[in-house]
């Protein structure tokens, strides 16, 4: 049994679903991946269903022919930077790009989004009220608070371990214009911004309508290290809580994008620009503590010295806060698999982002990023400000975000896998580094 047998089996169901190497469709799909590390992987074919029933037919057709030696990848829109998580060299990639469509139910305030659509950032899983899922058996089921609740919880953070999601039903909300954008400034002011971020996160009356990320980064095109604040408020006026982050001086006025705009306008800004070449995202999580964040900045500078010779380097560190209010909202909306509790917070995700051109620099980039995070973790543990949680979308193959959710969550995920995929199809045949280690 082989990949070619699986392709033939799908072809017997519907030949139009198979895109083979050398075809225009195959090359178009391959070029659509966000990171070059995924674009370098060339599957034996792309399978391109346009409905949940076609996904089910594909699963039934290929199941007898794939396993630990013949792998299957599942790709929504190919935006995650983790290599080999949504594509597989020499195997089969089920690409959901043809599952398109957004429908709005105004009576129930529900937006249904097909799995091939591109979505934004954040804990969007907490807004999912229902998943349409194709199981390993080929059955199409719904998972929500009333039906298959255990699967619903597992899918909110559990990765591609349980089935193929073909539709997301999301809780809708009213949103007028927002105030926010990006502003850039210089290194001497960054320490003050860290202090302001930690004070904001520990404030008992923190404004829950604002979002703040602070970054420090080098871009070869600019030739220097600059600082950036990414700030938003769900109201169209600048709030008092954001003043420490927007009135920092001196600023680089010509790069300032602060404004009143629509959610779409800000989203378009975030996704503008050409596809990067090689990309790595690695992260850790710590308590909201000034000293550990300052240590992370020191570590960044030491790492930058080791990467300065990398061609067309973009290297940044970003502090993304996880306020207590966000964790509380997760619980209020039915919970998820992430294992976070309000008592754990406030937390800060420390993200290292690197992009570069040459495969010759791969090992150096991986090693420097890995060592940097290990040093931060060691320092955090020594100062009792560490946190176990790892954000899956910012994890690298050597990391284990599933286990970081804690033993209770992991036990739930294992039980759900055994219930809905008793033969372990998605564990054995599914690609991706973040498996349940069964």
UniProtKB/TrEMBL annotation:
Protein name: FAD-binding PCMH-type domain-containing protein
Keywords: FAD, Flavoprotein, Oxidoreductase
Gene3D superfamilies: 3.30.465.10, 3.40.462.20
A molecular function GO annotation: flavin adenine dinucleotide binding
Family: Belongs to the oxygen-dependent FAD-linked oxidoreductase family.
The organism of origin for this protein: Diatrype stigma
Listed PANTHER family: BINDING OXIDOREDUCTASE, PUTATIVE (AFU_ORTHOLOGUE AFUA_1G17690)-RELATED (PTHR42973), FAD-BINDING PCMH-TYPE DOMAIN-CONTAINING PROTEIN-RELATED (PTHR42973:SF22)
Annotated transmembrane regions: none
């Amino acid at each position: 049994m082989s990949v070619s047998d699986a392709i033939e089996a799908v072809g017997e169901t519907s030949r139009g679903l198979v895109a083979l190497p050398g075809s225009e469709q195959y090359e178009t799909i391959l070029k659509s991946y966000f990171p070059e590390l995924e674009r370098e992987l060339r599957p034996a074919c792309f399978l391109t269903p346009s409905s949940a029933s076609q996904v089910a037919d594909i699963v039934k057709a290929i199941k007898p022919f794939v396993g630990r030696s013949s792998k299957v990848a599942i790709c929504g829109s190919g935006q995650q930077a983790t290599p080999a998580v949504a594509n597989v060299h020499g195997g089969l990639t089920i690409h959901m790009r043809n599952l398109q469509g957004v429908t709005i139910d105004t009576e129930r305030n529900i937006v249904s989004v097909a799995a091939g659509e591109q979505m934004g950032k954040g804990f969007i899983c907490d807004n999912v009220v229902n998943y349409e899922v194709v199981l390993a058996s080929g059955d199409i089921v719904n998972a929500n608070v009333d039906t298959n609740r255990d699967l619903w919880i597992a899918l909110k953070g559990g990765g591609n371990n349980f089935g193929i999601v073909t539709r997301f039903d999301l809780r809708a909300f009213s949103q007028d214009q927002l105030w926010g954008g990006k502003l850039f400034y210089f290194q001497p002011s960054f320490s003050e911004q860290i202090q302001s971020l930690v004070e904001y996160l520990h404030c008992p009356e923190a404004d829950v309508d604002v979002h703040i990320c602070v970054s420090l980064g080098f871009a070869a095109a600019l030739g220097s290290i600059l600082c950036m604040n990414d700030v938003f408020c769900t109201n169209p006026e600048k709030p008092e809580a954001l003043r420490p982050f927007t009135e920092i001086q001196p600023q680089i006025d010509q790069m300032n994008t602060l404004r009143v705009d629509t959610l779409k306008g800000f989203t378009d800004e975030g996704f503008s620009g050409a596809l990067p070449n090689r990309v790595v995202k690695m992260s850790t999580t710590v308590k909201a503590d000034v000293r550990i964040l300052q240590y992370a900045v020191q570590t960044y500078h030491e790492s930058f010295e080791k990467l300065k010779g990398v061609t067309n380097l973009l290297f940044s560190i970003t502090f993304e806060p996880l306020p207590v209010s966000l964790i509380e909202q997760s619980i209020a909306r039915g919970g998820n698999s992430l294992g976070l509790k309000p008592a754990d917070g406030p937390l800060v995700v420390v993200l290292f982002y690197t992009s570069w051109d040459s495969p010759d620099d791969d090992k150096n980039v991986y090693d420097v990023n890995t060592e940097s995070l290990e040093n931060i973790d060691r320092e955090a543990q020594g100062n009792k400000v560490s946190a176990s949680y790892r954000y899956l979308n910012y994890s690298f193959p050597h990391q284990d975000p599933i286990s970081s959710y804690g033993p209770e969550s992991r036990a739930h995920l294992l039980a759900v896998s055994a219930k809905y995929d008793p033969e372990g199809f998605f564990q054995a045949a599914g690609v991706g580094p973040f498996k349940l280690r069964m």
